[in-house]
TrEMBL record:
Low complexity bias (residue ranges): 309-326
Protein name: ABC transporter ATP-binding protein
Top-rank taxon: Bacteria
Organism: Agromyces lapidis
GO molecular function annotations of the record: ATP binding
Family to which the UniProt record says this protein belongs: Belongs to the ABC transporter superfamily.
Length: 334
């Protein structure tokens, strides 16, 4: 096994014409842990990974593996296992796919059955990939990343499309790689999807870094708030203003920056306002994540840690190999 090497993103920007996909982004991903690379759709995750893997040129800044850009790695497949962009020939079997990539990279074909076994696809090795489920394709993409037994893994949305058993499996798989001292970077637009699998998070929004730290530190960022509503919202707003309480208007009432519903209820009482709802908004990772990336938290009580509004996992792209075929700069709009 190759050593885990840090992934180093420094002052990285990428513009596609007038669109700034990545904006002065800097962070490091250390070996020995699983790092979640998170942000809503369009935040710039895939673009960052494509620059890192030499598929797109940076407008400025650098993205390297311990100081070496991907294209300068002497044996890339034995250094970095990357799953990005689905690209399987439907008529080929899994075994043949992997054989082709192993041969191209000068790796022994004996690695093929080993990696198929590792991802639980050994019994489907002779089946054409066109008949694979999304979950099986995800596993095949991971088998590809394992071919060179690398020390670094860069995986774009690898959990998307997996069933609950597949999600449990990949959690163990990723954690095992990290415990072996490898560097593991996993992107997702859903915190809830990866929160059981990651130790650290790098969160971006609109191409910029908004949070870097442990999963636990993200939880600490989330202060509980109070939901309050009234048949007379104008009077309620006046009462909250008079009490000096800050609030946002939500679908089911005002979300008040005050953890104690008792204080909010008192403010309404003092203002002579009838209430139709008063409860604490449960704090949680998801609420913290959504407030960091600038999306409105779900204000329904007790439901803040489940799911994310507007996300349909079936719509996101699948992660898959290969990464070493497209020429650099191909994706540039100009
Ligand atoms: N080749 C391209 N040409 C023009 N604009 C692009 C190109 N690739 C990405 N973009 C734009 O850059 C921004 C970031 O996109 P990117 O795919 O990196 O985000 P993402 O965080 O990976 O989102 P998702 O989770 O939806 O994949 C978006 O506004 C996107 O439309």
């Amino acid at each position: 096994m190759a050593d885990g090497i840090p992934i180093e993103i420094t002052g990285l920007s990428k513009h596609f014409g007038a669109v700034t996909a990545v904006d002065d982004l800097s962070f490091t991903v250390e070996p020995g842990r699983v790092t979640g690379f998170l942000g809503p759709n369009g935040a710039g995750k895939t673009t960052t990974l494509r620059v890192l893997l030499g598929l797109v040129r940076a407008s400025s800044g650098t993205a390297t593996f311990g100081g070496t850009p991907y294209h300068a790695l002497p044996r890339p497949l034995e250094t970095v296992g990357a799953a990005l962009d689905a690209n399987f020939h439907p008529g080929r079997t899994a075994r043949n796919h992997l054989r082709v990539y192993a041969t191209a990279a000068g790796l022994p074909s004996a690695r093929v059955p080993v990696v198929l076994e590792q991802v639980g696809l050994a019994e489907f090795a002779e089946r054409r990939v066109g008949g694979y489920s999304l979950g099986m394709r995800q596993r095949l993409a991971l088998a590809y990343t394992l071919l060179g037994d690398p020390g670094v893994f860069v995986l774009d949305e690898p959990i998307n499309g997996l069933d609950p058993e597949g999600i449990r499996w990949i959690r163990v798989f990723l954690q095992t790689l990290a415990r072996e001292g490898r560097t593991v970077l996993v992107s997702s637009h859903l915190l809830s999807e990866v929160q059981q699998s990651v130790d650290e998070v790098v969160i971006i929004s609109r191409g910029r870094l908004v949070k870097r730290g442990t999963l636990a530190s993200l939880e600490l960022d989330s202060a509980p708030r109070t939901i309050v509503d009234s048949p007379d919202r104008t009077a309620l707003a006046t009462a909250l203003d008079s009490a000096g309480l800050e609030y946002d208007a939500g679908r089911s009432g005002f979300i008040v920056d005050e953890p104690d519903p008792g204080r909010v209820g008192h403010a309404a009482f003092v203002g002579g306002v009838e209430l139709s709802a008063l409860h604490r908004l449960k704090s949680g990772l998801e609420e913290s994540f959504l407030s960091l990336v600038g999306e409105a938290p779900d204000e329904s009580p007790g439901d803040a840690s489940n799911g994310s509004p507007g996300d349909d996992p079936a719509e996101a792209p699948a992660a898959a190999p290969p990464v070493d075929e497209a020429p650099a700069g191909e994706e540039d709009a100009r």
